[in-house]
């Protein structure tokens, strides 16, 4: 089967356009996120107060700090003053910005006194 020259040019051009469109629409690999795991032990006498501060802090961070993707706090069933916090940030800059806020909050004497132990994994 023989095609006229203009039809071949159109088919060739259409093939090139399709190749470019399909190449440019490939999913881009997501940027790596910053993930942090923190384990804390809270003074049992300060636990109720700490839970209030934690809830307020998580809500504020999720609403007002760009780049904070997730903050999950899980308390152990058998040791209710032990908790693990999973933190996910868009990037290192978002993590550093959040740590600046946490440092300011950590200057609260009552909060500082409620923490017995902190261990974090980056």
TrEMBL record:
Name of the protein this chain belongs to: Antibiotic biosynthesis monooxygenase
Pfam families in UniProt: ABM (PF03992)
Gene3D superfamilies attached to this UniProt entry: 3.30.70.100
Keyword Signal: no
Start and end residues of each ABM domain: 37-99
Keywords: Monooxygenase, Oxidoreductase
Molecular function GO labels: monooxygenase activity
Organism name: Hymenobacter wooponensis
